[in-house]
UniProtKB/TrEMBL annotation:
The modification N6-carboxylysine is found at K218. Meso-2,6-diaminopimelate binds at R384, D408, N409, P410, R411, G460, E464. Residues 23-95 form the Mur ligase N-terminal catalytic domain. It catalyses: UDP-N-acetyl-alpha-D-muramoyl-L-alanyl-D-glutamate + meso-2,6-diaminopimelate + ATP = UDP-N-acetyl-alpha-D-muramoyl-L-alanyl-gamma-D-glutamyl-meso-2,6-diaminopimelate + ADP + phosphate + H(+). GO terms for cellular component: cytoplasm. This is UDP-N-acetylmuramoyl-L-alanyl-D-glutamate--2,6-diaminopimelate ligase. UDP-N-acetyl-alpha-D-muramoyl-L-alanyl-D-glutamate binds at S31, N150, T151, T152, S178, R186. Carboxylation is probably crucial for Mg(2+) binding and, consequently, for the gamma-phosphate positioning of ATP. Residues 335-462 form the Mur ligase C-terminal domain.
């Protein structure tokens, strides 16, 4: 594509030489990925500054550079005020506005994003639509999966993924939109049709200044739904009426609002809720009819997830019957309340709870059905919100009979220091917990303790198949380790 054509979408920029004739073959934001003919966009990052990699990009074949400050370069430089924003606009143009060709649902909120996206995948698959899903676990197009390094990819990878979905004939795209992505502009240029808000509770206060700033980031998804009305392409904000943050979310959008909930008055509601150890049943009340749902998903939080997915699907004109069949068909989501010890006298559950709110929800749910002791194995991630550590530890103690505090992904932090952050202030309860920093040993210990009718919750890593220590990701899967521990106990 000619640079002149690409830049026709950027109204104001400066160049140090003529760019009209330059033909580019790809856009890159990483100098290491630059090939002959690439346009290299310099992004100032948290670790390094892309502007320092211009020479490497040119050596690898860059034909032009986009920068937001002065750089020395042997090839033409286009200077813009914000290179991240420019990257999003250029990527959308380069890949031919792919998100406008796909009905696109974005899901945001502290907890439940992955779950809601997979419920929606199931619903749309039952509706005979080919789906594309982007989120924490992977990118998935139909049944083909692709690895991801972020829940919401950078703008360049994202637009490229949308183009792949268009080429693969995807009829419904569904994605998780993290607060980081919204704050950093990774989803600028995405033409969302439906935006879903699950809930807000504490997380990521290492990145966001405070909880208000975190909520403001989440609200951007709703602000980005657009400010005009188009009969042929209606846009919807799907909002949890029972969440205290919903007022601000509602005010952030000019688009149609669909509310869901169980306690406050809402358009989509669950009534006559019945939750037990095998599943959940409720009556789904909607403006287009009512019906009974009987799902294998466990816990009140999953009723909310099912309501969120149902509300989005109703906005997307999916018939209620299809929604019912899909919700009743889904067995569970990888690493979310996943039951491991099917043939044992005790239960082992692996769950991705890594926030105070999700840990509390999941433990309260287990406590309701547990016949005997509840053990929890949990840690907190390094290089992440420190203030959630003592809260998660206190919740683990309060809602279990015995807690084993261990490492999650320590990343570049000292694992013992993370555990100190968790246990500071718990000196009076040392008989209710122990600290085993090696995660494998912690899981083995819990399994060794377990007797008939006990439940073990292994929280925090869910579907993850690695443990990151320093900058290295080692193979590690809670589910595999738990099964090994059970086998060893049986011997
Ligand atoms: C804090 C944060 O969001 N960091 C993201 C950011 O990394 P960074 O700012 O450190 O990037 P950098 O290494 O400084 O590089 C700056 C620029 O220089 C370029 N570069 C760098 C090196 C080089 O040799 N050549 C070169 O050109 C890079 O390609 C980049 O364009 O940009 C990277 C590329 O897009 C992201 O992968 C990275 O996410 C990291 C891995 C991360 O952990 N992010 C977390 C906090 C995150 O975003 N989480 C949310 C989910 C949270 C949730 O689910 O609740 C997510 O959406 O994943
Ligand atoms: N609606 C909900 N409200 C509160 N907790 C929930 C909800 N749904 C799921 N959880 C809990 O949160 C954990 C993570 O769920 P899920 O992966 O769906 O959330 P997420 O928002 O995608 O998380 P992440 O921010 O890591 O991508 C689950 O394992 C469960 O313990
Ligand atoms: N997307 C979340 C995942 C946290 C999962 C937990 N296992 C951890 O490493 O803290 C994050 O990056 O904060
Ligand atoms: Mg997720």
């Amino acid at each position: 594509m000619k640079l002149s054509e690409l830049f026709s979408y950027i109204p104001i920029y400066q160049t140090n030489s003529a760019i009209k004739h330059i033909e580019i073959t790809s856009i890159e934001m990483d100098s290491q990925k630059v090939k002959e003919g690439s346009l290299f966009v310099c992004i100032p990052g948290f670790t390094v500054d892309g502007h320092d990699y211009v020479d490497e990009a040119i050596a690898n074949g860059a034909r032009a550079i986009v920068a937001q400050k002065e750089v020395k370069s042997a090839v033409p430089v286009v200077t813009v005020t914000d290179s991240s924003r420019t990257l999003a606009i250029l990527a959308d143009r380069f890949y031919n506005h792919p998100s406008s060709k796909l009905p696109l649902i974005g899901v945001t909120g502290t907890n439940g994003k992955t779950t809601v996206t997979y419920l929606l995948e199931e619903i749309y698959n039952h509706f005979q639509k080919k789906t594309g899903v982007i989120g924490t676990i992977q990118m998935k197009i139909d049944n083909k999966t692709y690895p991801v390094s972020n829940t919401t990819p950078d703008a360049l990878s994202l637009q490229k993924s949308f183009q792949l979905m268009v080429n693969e004939g995807v009829e419904q795209a569904i994605m998780e939109v993290s607060s980081h992505a919204l704050d950093l502009g990774r989803v600028y240029g995405c033409d969302f049709d439906i935006a879903v808000f699950t809930n807000l509770s504490q997380d990521h206060l290492d990145f966001h200044k405070n909880i208000d700033d975190y909520l403001r980031a989440k609200s951007l998804l709703f602000a980005q739904l657009g400010n005009t009305y188009d009969d042929s392409k209606q846009k919807f904000a799907i909002i949890n009426a029972d969440d205290l943050s919903s007022d601000l979310i509602k005010k952030s959008t000019a688009q149609h609002i669909v509310t869901y909930g169980c306690r406050s008055e809402a358009q989509i509601m669950a009534e006559e809720i019945n939750i037990d150890a095998d599943g959940t049943a409720f009556k789904l009340i909607t403006p287009v009819g009512e019906l009974q749902i009987s799902s294998k998903l466990i816990g009140m939080f999953n009723v909310y997830n099912m309501l969120a997915a149902s509300a989005a699907a109703i906005a997307g004109k999916v018939p209620l019957k299809i929604i019912k069949t899909a919700l009743e068909n889904i067995n569970g989501i990888s690493g979310r309340f996943e039951s491991i010890a099917e043939n044992e006298s005790f239960a082992v559950i692996v769950d991705y709870a890594h926030t105070p709110d999700s840990l509390k929800n999941v433990l309260k749910t287990i406590k309701e059905f547990a016949r005997r002791k509840v053990y929890v194995v949990v840690g907190c991630g390094g290089d992440r919100d420190r203030s959630k550590r003592p809260l998660m530890a206190a919740i683990a103690l309060r809602y279990s009979d015995h807690a084993i505090f261990t490492s999650d992904n320590p990343r570049t932090e000292d694992p013992e220091a993370i555990l100190q952050d968790m246990t500071n202030g718990l000196e009076d309860f040392t008989n209710k917990y122990e600290v085993i920093s090696d995660r494998k040993s912690a899981i083995y210990q819990a399994v060794n303790y377990a007797e008939e009718d006990d439940v073990i919750l292994i929280a925090g890593k869910g579907h993850e198949t690695y443990q990151q220590i320093g900058h290295v990701k080692y193979d590690f899967d809670d589910r595999v380790i738990a099964k090994e521990a059970i086998k060893a106990k049986e011997k």
